[in-house]
Each structure stands twice: as structure tokens, then as C-alpha cells.
Write a structure and sequence with these properties.
The complex is a heterodimer of chains A (109) and B (423). Chain A is mostly helical and 109 residues long. Chain A has helices at residues 4-13, 25-31, 34-37, 56-64, 68-78, 81-89, 93-105. Chain B is α/β, with parallel strands linked by helices and 423 residues long. Chain B has 2 domains: 2-64 and 102-133 and 282-349, FAD/NAD(P)-binding domain, CATH 3.50.50; 139-279, FAD/NAD(P)-binding domain. In chain B, the strands form 7 sheets. A 5-stranded parallel sheet of chain B has the order 3-2-1-7-19, with helices on one face. In chain B, strands 11-10-9-15 form a 4-stranded parallel sheet, with helices on one face. Classes of the chains: A mainly alpha (109), B alpha/beta (423).
């Protein structure tokens, strides 16, 4: 007996860019943030929540485009931003769009 | 030993015909993923797989031992955190499509796709995920062995051993000598020995101000070296010495009766010798040649499937994932890739682009920390560090940044623990 969820999932899997795939590209990328920013990106004080944020795309792109030397110099002033500047560099522009769109769709905590 | 295991496996196999028929069934009904090990790697894999492959059945084989997190356990060594606060209750992992078994796994057969449990029963799997962590090998040091661990406590797996080490530290007299010996890499938590040295030195400065601490290191360099050394130079110039491999730091032999340590040119009689043993993957990860005889398991970093048995995945400390360190953060990152890859395969899709991440915080004092981080890409050829992503806290920084990072280290701990265990 084939169960219904499997059939539904197989149907979803046949459409390559279907956002209902588990996990979506955005959700998969966002899961990396849970390690510090809490399950579902709910936040873990003093690390801020990510759910429901509309500014993540702009913020990640700003960090990604920051020259390395400037990032190092600002490291002191920005505190933990030295980590975020480097994480942002590991994301393509498409990654940033997907990740930011995923969090923007979630309800704020 | 392997032969004996094999015979036990076959004689314990009355269940096999049943198990095999359920394997055939499982191709049509819900696939079964068996996960061995419930640390950061195994628990994270179970929870994300449950979410991303809701059609599959998941059995998490935890073993019988209670579990305490290694992260933050160095704080318990210096009395700045309770052991109770590090214990994770894992019964809440059994929810939805996750079953939890408090039994040890004894053996597996990648061809029959069966996992043998200590009670003689077998589980049949479509995919097996091995996440058992490390085995310590004190016997790899001349004169040492499991019987001598109480003499040379390492507490490299957190738990009651952490408190034994804490008691031994309390017993060090003022003017006494503490030695931490570091094994040759790879080992669990590369910055761990240096964090422990920093925290012990912080404690000694307050409670045994005339005591000394020496790090005997089998390596000639180490992670966040500049940052650690700058802190030691500033805060413990007369208290803490690091001797690298090139500087007679390699521990050659111990004498458990005398409590002494011996390098090529020196004999030490410390009041406390924390001898961190060489390590390898835990025994279940070395069955069926999964480790290729190398002690650690080679994987395809796009999916963390074993290069020896593709229906077996190995994540966390037991896998070969350099340049990623053997850290809880890396283990959870690998677990998410593995879960997404298995979910994709069950639904006939390609695994996602394998973006891996790591951050290791190290405490210099209970209120000051440094961090190192990196992003990686798993490819057919191996794990590549992505350009511009690897780096650590600035060398020159105000105390306020180190304090902020200690706060972030605690925030990471709360998040990572909640994400992995729901606790």
C-alpha cells in the first residue's frame, strides 16, 4: 500500500523548482543560521531573531560586498559582525535572495 | 574479534528472514532510516530528517549512557558551571516519526541492510547514519591504558569524568604543577585543550597563584594560536607555558605508578596530569571496513555517504571532513546536509548544493571568548573552504569584544542544543 504523503512528495519532487520541495533551497540555507540564531531563527539573546525579517537581503549583501580589510578594521566596532561578514561571503547572490525570502515569509517570533 | 562479531551476528539472526522481508516491503512503503548515536550529529540528523522526509520512519539508536555536552564542559572543570546543566534529556527526541532506542548497536551488515542491537534483535534499514563520535586510545601512549585514566584524567567525553577532573584540579597545591598533554591531530575539538589551559590558568591565578601549567603538545602549531598566545602572554606570562612538538612537547611515555610523564628530554612529576589520549572513530564506525583501517571514515562530502558503503552515511567526529574541525557545530552542519541529501534521494531529487559551516568559540576566561569560523563546499573531490570565509576574532580587540563573544558563545550553546535536541 503506497501511502499518500509519499505520492504527494514524489509529485512535488518532479517539479525541479517547486518551492514546496522539502527542504526548499531557502529553508535549507536558513537551517545553517539555526545553530546560533536559535531553532527556526527565533533568536537567542543577544543574537537577534531572523524570522519575519525583511532587511536580511540588504544586510547580507552589504556584508558580502565589504572589502576584507575594511571588515577586519570594523571587526572591533561591529563586534560579532566579523563572523557574519565571512559567512555572507560564502553565499552567492541567489543564496542570499532565497535565504532572505525564506525568513521574510516566516511570522515574526 | 571481527570474526566473533560476525558469528554473533549470524547466530543472533533468527530475526533475519523477517527483517529481510520488511526490507522489501519498505521499498514500497515508508523508507526506514536508522541513526546510531545521539550527540549533536545524530540528534540533528534525526530532527531535520523528520522534517524534510516526513514519509520516512526514523529510529535513533542512542545507547544506554546518559549524555552530557562536551561544549562548555571546560567551565565545569573550573567550577564555573554545574555538570547537571550540561546533561541533555533525550527522551523528547521521540516524537512524530522518530523512535528512540536506549540500546547499544553491536554490528551492521551493509549488504543485508541490518543493524544488530545488543539484545540480539536486528533493525532493517534503507539508510544507516553512523554518528557515534570518538573512542579514546590511552593505550596508544607507552605505559598508559584505560586503568590509568583515573591517574591521568582527560574528561574528553563529558560526564562524571569532568567532575573527577574538577576535583583533581581542586587538589592541586599552591606552587604545584599542572600538565595538559595534547595528542597529535586529528582529535575532537581542536581548540579544546587550549581553552582548558586558559580556563585552568584563570582558576589557578585566583586560587593557587604560585602554581604553573605546562601544555605538552604533539603538534607544532594549533588553531587560533596567535589569539591564545597573545592572551597567555598578557594574562599568564609566568604561569602558563606551551611546548610544541619541536620543543620537546611530544609525550613519549607515562608511568602510572609514579604519576610521571616523560618526553625525549624531560621527566615531569605533576600534581595533575590531564593526558588527552589519541583518538579514532568509535567502534561501530570501524565495522565492515567503514574506516578503511584508517581510524576515521571517508565520506562523499556532498551527502556524507560513506565512500566504502554508499547506503551508510557517517557524520560528526567519526567522519573525515577536514578542513572542517571535529566540532559540535560542524557535526550539526554535516547532519543537515546528510538529512537533506537523504530526503532528496527518497523523493527522486538531486541533493542540495552542500554548503557547510563551522564556528568554534573558545573561552579565555569565563567572561571572555574568541571565535574561528569558516564556510565550506562539499564537492566530489573533497571539502573546499570558500574564499574569504575562514578567519578568527581580531587579534587586537578591546575587552568589550571578548566579553561580547563570550555572550555569543553561550547564545550559540543554547541555540545549538535546542536545535539538535529540543532541550
Amino acid at each position: 500500500m503506497t501511502n499518500l504523503p509519499t505520492l504527494l512528495l514524489l509529485a512535488a519532487g518532479s517539479a525541479a523548482a517547486n518551492p514546496e520541495q522539502l527542504p526548499s533551497r531557502g529553508e535549507f540555507l536558513a537551517s545553517a543560521c539555526h545553530a546560533c540564531h536559535g531553532p527556526e531563527g527565533r533568536g537567542s539573546p543577544p543574537l537577534p531573531p531572523l524570522q519575519g525579517r525583511s532587511d536580511l537581503r540588504q544586510q547580507l549583501k552589504a556584508w558580502k560586498s565589504m572589502p576584507e580589510a575594511l571588515g577586519e578594521a570594523l571587526g572591533e566596532a561591529l563586534g560579532e559582525a566579523h563572523l557574519m561578514i565571512r559567512f555572507a561571503r560564502g553565499l552567492s547572490d541567489a543564496d542570499i535572495d532565497d535565504l532572505a525570502a525564506y525568513y521574510a515569509r516566516q511570522a515574526s517570533p | 574479534m571481527t570474526g566473533l562479531r560476525r558469528r554473533q551476528f549470524l547466530t543472533g539472526g533468527l530475526l533475519l528472514p523477517v527483517a529481510l522481508s520488511s526490507a522489501r516491503l519498505s521499498a514500497k512503503s515508508s523508507p526506514h532510516v536508522v541513526i546510531v548515536g545521539g550527540g549533536f550529529a545524530g540528534a540533528t540528523a534525526a530532527r531535520y530528517l523528520a522534517r524534510w522526509a516526513p514519509e520516512c520512519r526514523i529510529t535513533l539508536v542512542l545507547g544506554r549512557d546518559r549524555y552530557w555536552t562536551c561544549p562548555l564542559s571546560n567551565l565545569a572543570v573550573i567550577g564555573e558551571r554545574s555538570l547537571t546543566s550540561l546533561e541533555v534529556r533525550r527522551d523528547q527526541l521521540a516524537e512524530g516519526n522518530i523512535d528512540v532506542l536506549g540500546l547499544e548497536a553491536r554490528d551492521f551488515d551493509p549488504h543485508r541492510r541490518t543493524l544488530l542491537l545488543e539484545d540480539g534483535n536486528s533493525l532493517t534499514f534503507d539508510r544507516l547514519v553512523i554518528a557515534p563520535g570518538i573512542e579514546v586510545m590511552p593505550e596508544a601512549i607507552e605505559g598508559h591504558g584505560h586503568d590509568a585514566v583515573a591517574t591521568f584524567p582527560h574528561a574528553w567525553q563529558a560526564g562524571p569524568a569532568t567532575m573527577h577532573l574538577a576535583q583533581r584540579l581542586q587538589a592541586v597545591p599552591d606552587g604545584g604543577l599542572v600538565i595538559i598533554s595534547v595528542p597529535e591531530a586529528p582529535y575532537r575539538c581542536p581548540p579544546g585543550p587550549y581553552e582548558r589551559a586558559s580556563l585552568m590558568a584563570w582558576w589557578l591565578a585566583r586560587h593557587r597563584p604560585r602554581a604553573k601549567l605546562i601544555i605538552l603538545d604533539a603538534n607544532s602549531s594549533f588553531t587560533k594560536e596567535e589569539l591564545f598566545k597573545a592572551h597567555w602572554h598578557k594574562s599568564h606570562p609566568q604561569r602558563l607555558s606551551w611546548l610544541g612538538r619541536h620543543d620537546d612537547g611530544l609525550l613519549r611515555r607515562v608511568d602510572a605508578k609514579r604519576g610521571s610523564l616523560h618526553t625525549d628530554f624531560e621527566d615531569y612529576r605533576p600534581d595533575l596530569a590531564c593526558v588527552i589520549p589519541p583518538q579514532r572513530a568509535a567502534p561501530i564506525a570501524r565495522i565492515a571496513d567503514l574506516d578503511g583501517g584508517r581510524g576515521w571514515c571517508s565520506v562523499d562530502p556532498r551527502t556524507f555517504a560513506s565512500t566504502v558503503h554508499p547506503n551508510v552515511h557517517v557524520i560528526g567526529d567519526a567522519s573525515i571532513a577536514n578542513p572542517m574541525p571535529k566540532s559540535a557545530f560542524a557535526a550539526a552542519s554535516q547532519a543537515r546536509i546528510c538529512a537533506a541529501a537523504i530526503a532528496a534521494e527518497f523523493s527522486g531529487r538531486q541533493p542540495p548544493h552542500a554548503l557547510l559551516t563551522n564556528t568554534c568559540y573558545s573561552l579565555l576566561t569565563p567572561a571572555a571568548a574568541i571565535a574561528i569560523s569558516g564556510s565550506y563546499h562539499g564537492t566530489r573531490e573533497g571539502i573546499e573552504t570558500l574564499a574569504g570565509t575562514a578567519g578568527s576574532s581580531p587579534l587586537e580587540a578591546p575587552a568589550s569584544l571578548r566579553e561580547a563573544e563570550a555572550g555569543h558563545a553561550r547564545a550559540w550553546y543554547v541555540s545549538a542544543r535546542a536545535d539538535a535536541f529540543g532541550d
